[in-house]
Amino acid sequence: MTRISITVDGVRYDDDVQPRTLLVHHLRERLGKVGTVVGCDTSNCGSCTVLMGGESVKSCTVLAVQADGLEITTVEGLAGSDGELHPVQQAFHDRHALQCGFCTPGMIMSAVDLLAENPDPTDAEIREGLEGNLCRCTGYQNIVRAVRDAAATMRAGASEPAPAAPEEAPAPAPAPVEVGS
Amino acid sequence: MTVVDERPAAEVGAPRKRKEDARLITGRTMWTDNLTLPGMLHLAILRSPMAHARITRIDTAPALAAPGVVAAFSGRDVAETQGSLPCAWVVTDDMVHPDHPPLAVDEVRHVGEPVAVVVARDAASAVDALGAIDVEYEPLPVVLEMDEALGEGAALVHSDKGTNKSYTWIYDSAEAGHGQAYDAATAEAEVVLRKRYVQQRLIPAFMEPRSVVVDPTADQVTIWSSTQIPHVLRVLIALVTGLPEHKIRVIAPDVGGGFGGKLQMTAEELITMMAARRVGKPAKYTETRSESLLAAHHGRDMYQDVELAARRDGTLLGLRVRLTANMGAYLALLTPSVPLLGRYMYNGIYKLPAYRFECTGVFTNTTPTDAYRGAGRPEATYAIERAMDDLAAELGMDPIELRRRNWIGHGEFPFHTVAGLTYDSGDYEAATDKAMSLFGYDELRREQAARRESRDPVQLGIGVSTYTEMCGLAPSRWLGSLGYAAGGWESASVRMLPTGKVEVLTGTSPHGQGHETAWSQIAADQLGVAFEDVEVLHGDTRTAHKGLDTYGSRSLAVGGFALVNACQKVVDKAKPIAAHLLECDVADVEFSAGRFRVRGAPADAEGKTMADCALAVFAAHDMPGGAEPTLDAEAVYDPTDFSFPHGTHLCATEVDTETGRVTVRSYVAVDDVGKVVNPLIVEGQVHGGVAQGIAQALFEEAVYDADGNLLTGTFVDYTPPSSADLPDIVSDRTETPAPDHPLGIKGVGEAGTIASTPAVVNAIVDALRPYGVDDIRMPCTPERVWRAVQGGDRS
Amino acid sequence: MIPAAFDYAKPSTVDEAVRALAEGGEDAKVLAGGQSLIPVLRLRLAAPTVLVDVGGVGELRGVRDDGDALVIGATTRHADLLRDPLVARHAPLLAQAAAQVGDRQVRHLGTLGGSLSHADPAGDLPGAAVALDASFEIAGPGGRRTVSAADFFVDFLTTALAPDEILVSVRVPKRPGWTTHYEKFNRVAQAWAIVGVAAAVRRENGSIAEARVALTNMGSTPLRAGAVEQSLAGSAATVDAVASAAGHAAEGADPPSDAFASADYRRHLATVLTRRAVLAAGGIA
Q1: Which whole-number Å values give the CA distances from B90 to B150, B334, C112, in the listed order?
Q2: CA distance B375 to B372
Q3: In 3D, which of B550, B556, B544 has the Cα closest to residue B494?
Q4: Do C259 and B781 touch (CB under 8 A)?
Q5: Cα torsion for B149, B152, B157, B160, to the nearest 10°?
Q6: Does the beta-carbon distance from A43 to C7 stay under 8 Å?
Q7: Do the first three CATH levels of B299-473+641-790 and B489-637 match, i.e. the same topology?
Q8: C108/A55 Cβ within 8 A
Q9: Beta strands in B79-208 (DSSP E)
Q10: Do A20 and C104 touch (CB under 8 A)?
Q11: Torsions phi, psi of C222, nearest 5?
């Protein structure tokens, strides 16, 4: 067993884990963060995508021990504390960018990551940027539309004067809370 | 498309954003694998590494000694009690129908077949212990290819059956009285196209791997399963296990896609039930993606030998189809019927004097096949639409012109087809004209000519697909006449709650289709309540107790009809209540726009709402004479016939003749699915369907090696396309209402998949006709395309 | 699936890492980003007894300017290569090849050293390293040594690294006056290369003075296309001359036949892609 400490969606968790435990299994089975799902075993489908240290990773291809000391954001931690949806979540809803919804948590997290790097992507850049996430229902058409819309919303939000946070600043997270498990 | 935030005048037809999304975009979804119950144990399944072998020895005892293991057993341990996985569709009286034990007992017949199971306190321990199970196999001869399997002296998948043929099924339009005899009708033919088209084996590859949780500790055994068919499953479990039906509860929670792949009673469901009941504790099994690709049923896999006879002016004279369909090693729930569903559709949208269809089902040492999006109909449409393009080329005619000369005119409906169906309505001319205009057909033909002229290494091709399909499975009488064990009706119930809110129960079982939204729209209109005030309950046999679930583009066409009827019953029950409240005669009450008013009252008269009636019934203090204090109602609808959506899809591909790379440059889909409840959802269904059809044309194939090992056992090798691999899809609609449906709707779930595959392949072949290419086997990989350009091996 | 159990060590220096590997014996494995290793563990195609996670070794990460060369730490991630100004200036081919690896998520964890040490012949970075004539600094119990790219890739998934050695850094010579291109051909966007071509060209007075061309997935290791290079050296910078030279691309290659492509087709692709890569690298139209 190896002792790790990770902060997930603003909450700190200290746990002893087997080194072989995948981050996604740690999230789902130990921490109850079942919003993140497993869709394959070869790092292709991207359903398990989360942000680790602010960047998208496939949590089925990360050992929990590799996440030690890092901040993880899952789809469950994306909305504001008042329940206000993240612009990407809102755009997915508005544009009917999901059907069965299984790929959606990973797809949304990938889109969030893409827009953090490229706030104004072309359709081709969106398609390229989401190449690591498979969806079987939508044909991606509405996903591309949604990401384009979200980008516009986020750019408009970023250019507004206060109270919007500066673009570089990380989203405000609740203060870490100790949770033993 | 503009989405609706404001309240529309009518909900039906409005692009309502989906109710389902709230939980799906925030990670609050209830997938089966999310479920954890007190004391729950975990399964791992040992699967056969051999395509065909006798199990000479199997010992699970060493696994029992491994850490965390609670139980382990093999097929031999449960041989007498495990039962056989069912095939519900006996297509001929002499159909060969072998036993299909959930856990193999003496013999394994495909790689991936379950042979033993370990039950442990956690999933990792269960997987670890699999290696301790001691199995010895004696290899048996393997047969994988269908022609070989049907040949003299072939190795037998089921040696006791003496044959690899499951059945041969014949339809002849003359014998059936729906047309002439093929030979007579085509005697004068000036052109006869003879082609073998190959439907490669596909894997449904729904995104959520299958998962099942069984809780045997309560009075009812509860089964959560990632299934399309909770209601059917409950009946089947009762029949297979002998557990009384009323002691079984099946729940399909949120289900992550199906595409026919979860229209099944699985070995894994029965194995998990056996394990949970043996140890008396809740148990969970969740497959890995590799297991899913290997062992969940596959789709397609047919040879289509097609003969299309015509006159030089393009007039079609007859169609003959000889189909050879791979069943795999066993008959799963609907395996033998899938190719036969196609038999109704090979004639497409065309007026044909004669049609003969023969289908032979063949056993091989491969994973069983069964329904995959469209189930028989995409295959049929592929064959006829490829043949029409090939015939047009043969005749030197524009492929759309050839179609125009043969399709059913919009004034000819209802039309009795040579396949024995009656097409309800359609307007092929309108859909085609719209598609051609959106596509820029003539302009692209000019560009094609210019590229041919300049010998551009990147050639342009244009592919046409004018399809129809049969939706709304299915009239029960029709199903019965074809040997299916169940009916095709669907149920809906409406519960009026005391505060005026509504619960709708549907027997359909959505897994991405958005029923909660569409059913809410229908109920809101029918009952005059707010969209938000409707809750749609489904997928739990305890609440939505009656149903036949979701497949075959049936939910709205059949279940939606039932919902309209149930709502009508509620209105009928509420009328006397309203009359009582309004102190008038029932005959004088009118219901419109959500209000009961006395006939002749001004349109702005307040009247009484459904909520007023619901409250009055709840209190029941003052019911009109003899009235039962309830507004609740149930309706079961058995369709009288199918509905027939149609459309025209046009595809332009660029083909790099140096590398064989195909790029879809533009894709236009004009579909006519009748009236539309929610255009947002309909468009989404078309997009996804088109993508899956393109995937068949370009990317996906389940491939076995000579020993029967699946070479495409992960997403590294079985390659569903990503956003970067697919084109923009332009979709639009024409609208020809279904004459026999109260809402005029037809169904849309499979249309895109049915239409798109031939459109893409026709475009590739069209690009390469100057190179002498007249077919390329799917998927049209760069290498296959390049070889075709070289004039070499086209397979 | 779940990997088989293993022990885990997380050293913070190269020496500690080497010691941990030595202690772990034959079945110890280095874990860098894990993007190739973890799927293999999950499918239980490998079951190492101990994983030595070098993610915490500071010396292994980062890009520095070392005069006539760049020195890139082994655990520098693909995503870092894409953003690094020194790489953009002096070795853009590496960034271009790294951009073709997997997808965004994979590039956020996958490392240069991991890709090179994994030595998958279908990987994008080995070919680029060969084209750039990179050299590899290796640390082991006996100290450090340097191996050329030509000697580093030994066979399918096999490098010059001994089981108790780790890759420390990759030294990439700066090549003023050279221009480069990586041309990849695959089935779907996130897939491995069916064939890839890394080309570097130095033009002089309207002709091609020198060229280096390396092929991905045309054999059990990345291959130099020697005949192409010879034919290009001193040739005119024209489409025809390049096409003629590219016709030699598959000479001496022994490409695999697999579910994605036959050997013959790969040979053909190598010529087409080589032509395209050299034309793009040399800016020849």
Answers
A1: 20, 9, 58
A2: 5
A3: B544
A4: no
A5: 150
A6: no
A7: yes
A8: yes
A9: 107-108, 114-120, 134-139, 165-172, 191-202
A10: no
A11: -65, 145
Q: pLDDT tens, B644-656?
A: 999 999 999 999 9
Distance CA B31, CA B53 (A): 36
Nearest CA in chain B to C191: B716
**What's the topology of domain C65-173?**
3.30.465
Over 70: is that where the pLDDT of B426 sits?
A: yes
Phi–psi pair at B159, nearest 5 degrees = -60, -30
Rounded distance between C-alpha atoms, residue C149 and residue C137, angstroms: 10
B399-406 helix and B377-395 helix, angle to the nearest 10 degrees: 110
* Homologous superfamily, domain B32-140+209-255+262-295: Aldehyde oxidase/xanthine dehydrogenase, a/b hammerhead (3.90.1170.50)
Residue type at C132 in one-letter notation? L
Over the stretch A54-93, which tens digit does the pLDDT of each residue have?
Answer: 999 999 999 999 999 999 999 999 999 898 999 999 999 9
Residue range A87-159 in CATH 2.130.10.10: no
pTM of the model: 0.96
Q: Is the ipTM of this complex over 0.85?
A: yes
Q: Which of A43, A49, A115 to mutate to test binding with chain C, by most C CBs within 10 Å of its CB?
A: A43
Q: Strand C166-173 vs strand C69-73: parallel, antiparallel, or unpaired?
A: antiparallel
CATH-assigned architecture of domain C178-282: 2-Layer Sandwich (3.30)
Contact of A150 with A111, CB cutoff 8 Å? yes
Mean pLDDT (chain C, rounded): 96
What distance in Å separates the CA atoms of residue B432 and residue B215, rounded to the nearest whole number?
53
Q: With the CA atoms of C7, C8, C14 and C19 taken in that order, what torsion angle do they form, in degrees rounded to the nearest 10?
A: -20
Burial class of residue B602 in the structure, from the number of CB atoms within 10 Å of its CB (0-12 exposed, 13-18 middle, 19+ buried): exposed
Give the residue from B760, B713, B793 showing the smallest Cα distance to B289: B713
Identify the DSSP state of B286: E
Q: In the Cβ-directed half-sphere of C123, how many Cα atoms lie within 13 Å?
A: 29
Which CATH number is B299-473+641-790 given? Answer: 3.30.365.10
Domain definitions of chain C by residue range:
7-55, 65-173, 178-282
Q: With CA atoms as reference, report the closest residue to A56 among A117, A9, A110.
A: A110
Could you give the angle at the alpha carbon of C67 between the alpha carbons of C162 and C109, nearest 5°? Answer: 50
- HEC-encoded secondary structure of chain C: CCCCCCEEECCCCHHHHHHHHHHHHHHEEEECCCCCHHHHHHCCCCCCCEEEEHHHCHHHCCEEECCCEEEEECCCEHHHHHHCHHHHHHCHHHHHHHCCCCCHHHHHHCEHHHHHHHCCCCCHHHHHHHHCCCEEEEEECCEEEEEEHHHHEEECCEECCCCCCEEEEEEEECCCCEEEEEEEECCCCCCCCCEEEEEEEEEECCEEEEEEEEEECCCCCCEECHHHHHHHCCCECCHHHHHHHHCCCCCCCCCCCCCCCCHHHHHHHHHHHHHHHHHHHHCCC
Q: Any idea what the Cα angle at residue B511 is, between residues B508 and B516, rounded to 5°?
A: 60
Q: Decide if C1 and B699 are in contact by the 8 Å CB cutoff.
A: no
Burial category of A169 from C-beta neighbours within 10 Å (exposed 0-12, middle 13-18, buried 19 and up): exposed
Indicate the helix (H) or strand (E) that contains B574.
helix B561-582
Report the percent of chain B where pLDDT is more than 90. 93
In angstroms, the CA C123 to CA C127 distance is 8
Task: Tell me the residue ranges of DSSP E strands in A64-151.
Answer: 71-73
Which residues in chain B have Cβ-Cβ distances shorter than 8 Å to C1?
Answer: 127, 288, 290
Residue B559 and residue B544 in contact, taking contact as beta carbons nearer than 8 Å: no
* Site from A96, A110, A112, A127 to mutate, B interface, most B CB atoms within 10 angstroms: A96
From C242, C280, C277, C279, select the one nearest C124 (Cα to Cα): C277
Determine whether domain A2-77 maps to CATH 3.10.20.30. Answer: yes
